[in-house]
Amino acid sequence: MNWAPLQQASPLLVIGMHRSGTRLLADMLAELGVFMGADRQGDSESITFLRINEAVFHQCGTFWSEPLPVHVLLAQPEHVERLAGLVRETLAAELARYIGRSSWHPGPTREETPPFGWKDPRNTFTLPVWRRVFPNLRVIHLLRHGVDVAASLARRHRRLCVLAAGEGVPSPLAVFQDHSLGVLSSRRGWTLAEAFSMWEQYVEKARLESAALGERALEIRFEELLDEPDRVRARLGRFVGLDAPAADPGLLERIDRQRAFAFRGEPALVAFAETVPEILHRYGYAAECSS
User: Fold this and answer.
1) At how many degrees (to 10) do helices 229-240 and 22-32 cross?
2) CB atoms inside a 10 Å sphere around CB 146
3) Residue span of the structural domain in which 130 resides
4) What's the CATH number where 58 sits?
C-alpha cells in the first residue's frame, strides 16, 4: 500500500474519558458515513487501533487507568518519533484487519480518501504519536459530567470484582483480568474519588490536545448529545464534511435522556459532587442539583 497519501489523510479520532458515551458518538459518526473500522468490537472500538494504543501504554508499563506515565513519556519528542515509526510499521501490517470486507479503501490522494477514524479513550493520551503518523488528523472530544462518569466506572469495577472474586471489595493485593479489555486492570476506579480523579486527568489532557489542534478539534457534551441529537448530528456533519442523512431510528432509540446528569437522582452522588465544585466548574459543570 502507498503510505504517502494515507499519511496525509485526515482521520477522525474520538477522544475523552471512559464511560463518557464515546460508543454512542462512534456509532453516530458511522451513521453519518465515517468508516470506523470493520473490526469494531461491542464497544465500537477498532481492535486494530485499540491494540496499537495498548502497545504504546505498555511501553510505559501502564494501562488506561494510569495514563500519566504516557503523558510524561510522550512529552519527549525523541520518544514520540520512535513510537510513531513503530506505529507506522504496525499499522501497515494490520490495516487489512481494520478494513476487513468493507468497501472502504484509502484513495490515491488525501482528498480521495473516504472519511475514516476510530474511537478509543486511550487516544486522549496517545494523540502525540498519532499526530506524527497523521499530521492532518482531527479529533472529537466527548465530555460528560465527572460524577456521572465516576459513578459509572465505579459500578463497572464493582461488577467485575464480584464476577472475579465473589465480593465487591477486593483484598489489597488483588489483581483481576479484565476480559473486555484484554489487560490487567489496576485497582484505580473502584471508588468514586479514584474514578473522578481519572476523569479529571483525561479531560485536562483532552482539552490540552484539542487546544493545540485549534479548528481541527471539536468538543461535544454528552448531555447535549442526549438532549438534542439532531443538532449534534448536524454539527458533526459540518465538522466531518458530510451531509447528515435522516437519523437511523434504531440509533435514536438507544438515546436515553435520563442518563444526562443521572447523579442528581442519588443523594450519595450529589453529596460527593458537592465536595468537588471547583473541579466541576473548571470544565463547565456544576455540583448542584438545580444547575
Assistant:
1) 60
2) 29
3) 3-282
4) 3.40.50
